[in-house]
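Q: Could you fold this chain for me?
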Amino acid sequence: MDVSDLKVFEAVARLGSMNRAALELNTVQSNVTAKIRNLELELGVQLFQRQARGVQLTPAGRRLLPFSPKLSKLLSDAKTAALDDGSPNGELEIGTLETTAALRLPTVLANFARTYPLVRLVVTTGTTCSLVSDVLGCRLDSAFVAGPIGHPDLLHTPVFREELVLVAPRSLRSLEDLGFLQNLQTIVFRIGCSYRLRLDTFLASRGFLVTQPLEFGSVDAILGCIAAGVGISLLPKGVVASAWRDGRVSIHELAPEDAIVETELIRRRDTYVSSAMSAFLNCLTSERFPTLQAAE
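A: Sure. Below is the predicted structure, expressed as structure tokens.
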């Protein structure tokens, strides 16, 4: 059993398909099938029940699954530690919210890439829910998410504070006018976005019944739909400032308990802090964010 075996096993278990796992791992299905078969022979148990449409974990597979990302990460950390001479290098995988990537990170990432050219920085966007899952599953080294995050396996560091505002078509003059909107439509990121949950809670507290939301994967797409009069959203004020100044949308401030959200940097407690990760943390600190002391 080695790192590649465990990586293939985890992908098949998560995706429920040898073929989909092969696509994600950029290999052919026969290689994935052979890896799983060899792993089953080595362990002496069947890990997957083959079905007409994909595969399903056996009881033995379910017992192995929680160890797979931890073992893979431990072996990867061991290799990284052995090769880590203090000069930042190798690969660093960072996750982030779409809004954080647009508003807060361009300067940080540019400075980091310029200062540490030997580090291959990979940035992935997602929702808070998906990013937490990817950090816990050791698929990301760290991620920027909307707090508070209180998982016992994670270190969480408040990095900066956002003020959320209700973003609406120009015709909406105040929050009191929401009741006059016909077929109130929300325009949001996919399920797992904390801003989406806050918007749902805010509207429910005011007695609004919202139809099926429209889901998009980018800030620009959401703002474009709002500008066209399709619906409303809840986004950081800094992200929508340009569209508001251009007169494309209207923004409406909320009470602090609805508006203020802390963006946190999360990472696993039990992983090796490489020179590349240390350099990234130092780069954040140099951008005049709050002191990055990991919260317990």
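A (continued): The CA atoms of residues 155 and 267 lie 5 Å apart.
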